[in-house]
Amino acid sequence: MAHRPAGERRLCGGRDDRGGAIPAVNSLPRDLPAGAAQEQFLHVLPRDEALRRFEAALQARPVGTERVALSGALGRVVASDIPAAIDVPPFDRALVDGFAVRSADLADASAALPVRLRLNPETIACGVVPAVAVEPGTATPIATGGPVPRGADAVIMVETTEPAGPDGIEVRRPISPGAFLSFAGSDITAGETLVRRGTIVGSREIGVLAACGVAEIEVWRRPRVGILSTGDELVAPGEPLGPASIYDSNGPVVAAAVAENGGEPVSYGAVPDDPDRLRGAIRRAHAECDMIVLSGGTSKGAGDLTYRLVAELGPPGIVAHGVALKPGKPLLLAVCAGKPVVILPGFPTSAMFTFHDMVAPSLRRLAGLPPRSAAKVQATIPMRVPSELGRTEFVMVSLLGLEDGLAAYPLGKGSGSVTAFSQADGFITVEALADAVAAGTRSEVTLFTPHVTEPDLVIMGSHCLGLEPIISRLAEDGIRARLMAVGSQGGLAAARRGECDIAPIHLLDPATGIYNRPYLAPGMELVEGWRRMQGFVYRRGDPRFEGRSPAEAVASALADPDCHMVNRNAGAGTRIVIDGLLGGARPEGYSNQPRSHNAVAAAIARGRADWGVAIGPVAELYGLGFIPIAEEHFDFALVSSRRGRRGVAAFLAALEEPATLASLRKLGFRPAAES
Amino acid sequence: MAHRPAGERRLCGGRDDRGGAIPAVNSLPRDLPAGAAQEQFLHVLPRDEALRRFEAALQARPVGTERVALSGALGRVVASDIPAAIDVPPFDRALVDGFAVRSADLADASAALPVRLRLNPETIACGVVPAVAVEPGTATPIATGGPVPRGADAVIMVETTEPAGPDGIEVRRPISPGAFLSFAGSDITAGETLVRRGTIVGSREIGVLAACGVAEIEVWRRPRVGILSTGDELVAPGEPLGPASIYDSNGPVVAAAVAENGGEPVSYGAVPDDPDRLRGAIRRAHAECDMIVLSGGTSKGAGDLTYRLVAELGPPGIVAHGVALKPGKPLLLAVCAGKPVVILPGFPTSAMFTFHDMVAPSLRRLAGLPPRSAAKVQATIPMRVPSELGRTEFVMVSLLGLEDGLAAYPLGKGSGSVTAFSQADGFITVEALADAVAAGTRSEVTLFTPHVTEPDLVIMGSHCLGLEPIISRLAEDGIRARLMAVGSQGGLAAARRGECDIAPIHLLDPATGIYNRPYLAPGMELVEGWRRMQGFVYRRGDPRFEGRSPAEAVASALADPDCHMVNRNAGAGTRIVIDGLLGGARPEGYSNQPRSHNAVAAAIARGRADWGVAIGPVAELYGLGFIPIAEEHFDFALVSSRRGRRGVAAFLAALEEPATLASLRKLGFRPAAES
After folding, report:
1. Complex-level ipTM beyond the 0.85 threshold
2. Are the Cβ atoms of A186 and B596 closer than 8 angstroms?
3. Is A151 found in the same domain as A123?
């Protein structure tokens, strides 16, 4: 790789959540002309002020109308009131099968003195126009829905009549005028508004429209939203992933969120950071669409490139660049020649959050949709949540129903995580003036879905792939498990606090060499799970390790000062194994302490390190060499008082099923039952 | 029309809600062979038993899978667990813009003793694979999202560094190992289940799938549902309506409800009651689809025709024919050669109700969807609701928020109404063993939509088209008016009970000749609305009436014994006008007493009657002759205590707006302000 002077360094723009790229521009590109650096300067606005400026510049209203067939109108938004052109029913009709009669003829009818009516020579089936009037002393057979003939003022049910010869009936009771007859217009009156402007068409609206003969309606046109992701490192899902590449998730997720909010997404793909190509794509999107949503993931120089290209699109241009929001600070909001143009932060949770909070309301107005009404619930925050002063902060939370009400757990993952947004039930808002939320605070949680669904089983602790077949098995029986990966120690703490049913743990007690059991608190019992073989992991073919025992391999590693290890976090069972192998040595890489087997394997596979200790299946996933050391025990701390819960019982049963044992073996684990 | 002997009469099947057509078959077709009549016999089953038989015969499970692109997967149902193929992030990456460093180098850094690090000759932008290791005393510039190079165990934010010459930085604080670095797999671990079978794909699911490079997923195929309406009287929306025809609303509404429940509707249109055509259509639908939904509207003979044709389709065949449900008794449920075949009652509300109650759950299973979770609320039923013993009855209700909680008003319209289902907020269930619900009963209301939206203005009373522009005007300002057409007297009663804000009324006091004001109760005030000209209405060109005064026209009518009138209901202001004109005479048709101007005009236009009294705009709508008599006053009884409500204030303001007055004049009404 060519050397570049430091002054040329331009880093990714808009990706992180701490203002990332943009301060970088201020600080790093020291050889840029002062003006260019200045142009990039973030005037961070409070959230409400940024939103106010954007909405004032935009003045969003529906982008236009189109006519659609009723059969294709489901989910569309009605653009103008639709009046009924006809009465429904269009004529006085029979409500039952029977006979159209004159009620006066039957005024004195009784069982003792039945009245005989002569049948008229026509039968009014549905669709038949009556030709014969019902004269006194006569009746006309009529079907439900048939038009009532002249002269008749009621319909008598067939069940309440008796045949009387080939052309007559006998009636033994009187009937009121208007009985079993529905008058024209009694359901819908011509001129009445059937469906009002702004209504979202559902099957119920389709019913009344069809009944009035409406075959086509005017709806708001869906705003076309051009979606671009920018960045050399982005790869479209389905394509092979290069060594420093990541998949573009913002493009697909923004497209889906646009569709969910009434827009028609138009994807312009992931555009590399080439000024001409990027300018071309942005201009084309601006010309073809009603709105543009770009998202970061920009690399060298593209940060202020995109910014400048947006500024070129027309007045009034950028109205907010930098918003005191977390996640989401690097958000850019612009209105160019009447069309909204937005650059979302590159980090997935930041991007989704700012889209929903700041952009979706305007999109919905362009689509003629009402604001989304978010459901809210009250919940207790069980732990202190630190927050940054001066920024409105949104904290993604998972909800759990405890004995004394709902608890909202902050998802530990940051804005760079795609799962933080996806797995959260909702979020809490920490105002800009607060520096933390105290443990035990009652807070309002805005939900992502209308209802909170209480899980049948709560698992908090270490995550292992062996849990997947069990959870899938439970799902087949309709048991919803909520799994929160908080590590073994986190799981034990949650179990002590009564927050979970089961805590998966794999902790080695160095004093006794016993796994897990020594860590149980009173009120917990151990349920044995499975064993995972840990081993010395290295890149295949490395002559320092190939064919050695674990001890030999470590000795070989320690002998080479250029050999880097990757360690594990303190408290991990594997860390105890590693420290045992090292016997006090602290080689290069000892301070690199990821929290998972996968991170260890990834570091070795990518050359960040040369060896580490991880479990066999993960080494295999990464195609690494593996020298077995010892099994670790992946077990479950069960809160005894929860044993009776349906979800717990099902979990314990599933754990013993032959299919589960087979799945575990297939994953490379050894069920404890077989040890 | 040819005379048909009574024995040949065969009426509409499956249309009404009292068992309609089907008892008709037992009673009427006396010359059918006993077997044919027997075959048609309804064995009415309790709802739960009918449902149990249907579901047991069907054993519904998803109809199959297909692969769809992620971009087209929104709203689809995932058919199998989707595991992550990669770790996310795929490598250890920087969380901020800054420098990849060795934390040990900075252990003693402070403002007094800053540490100088030499910059390595590469910059890790996004997408760049590091080539140079971070050796002690060095740092590598790195962008947010960039892969952390070998040797580094932390990233330091650019803001916390100072430039130190062209190729160095100075750091004044220590940094922890792992700072601002996210480890491979920390967001998603390879092998972890990303989305579980049965999940409905939303934008959040698309995010995690895209992040793992998933471009295509396996979803349940949408079951194809063949939809046929049968009946000679049915006309497709958009086509001209014949004199005894009605528009097919069941076809479009079932299609929409199928789509809302995960199916793919396949419309076979409205099929006339021709045995060969009907057999052909049903067999084709059975061959091409996974399910068939027929709906009545059948005419002469088609009732048992459809029944026999369904029975021909294969075993086990019909499992329930007649269900003790109201609405919905004539429902037919069958399973033919593994596919569900259903004949819904013909009446729109019966059809929709039975579809949702009895059919949709199976359709959702075929589509792999979970049962729909209906929201429920508690409400008070303000009036006694009679019910039929022996049938589970569902009563459509509108909800209103009163001071002491929600009230559920039964919609007066029957199962023949298309609006009863469309306008209801939900329904209450009256068990088969109850013969009524007492006034004041607290009952559970199952909602049609997840939330009850409280109206800003409640209008109960007489309906007039003049209200439409006012309600539309309010809607523009976001004010939701709820209009319940209960007639003038009904509106006054509701106002007395505190159930509405405003009651539109048009009641003439015969004693004083004064409209409306004499009917106000204490606590109400009159708000004047508009005047509607009433007149003598007849078919244009009728020599008995053309060119006469109202009194002359009535005299002419009374002189002709073949001349039929159409009256109005007792209590209507117009009825008082009519009785005044008749002066005690009771001509033919006097007992025909519809409740609306439109029904009067429709009866005359269709020859059911020759004259009546109605308002001018309605006569014009039906192209009838009109001889003006006197204006009636359409005013509003306002509950004085409600004057301060936002909706009431807006209503009163809208009533006086020039645009409203113009709309009223255009409709043929004269605003009171102009009198």
Report:
1. yes
2. yes
3. yes
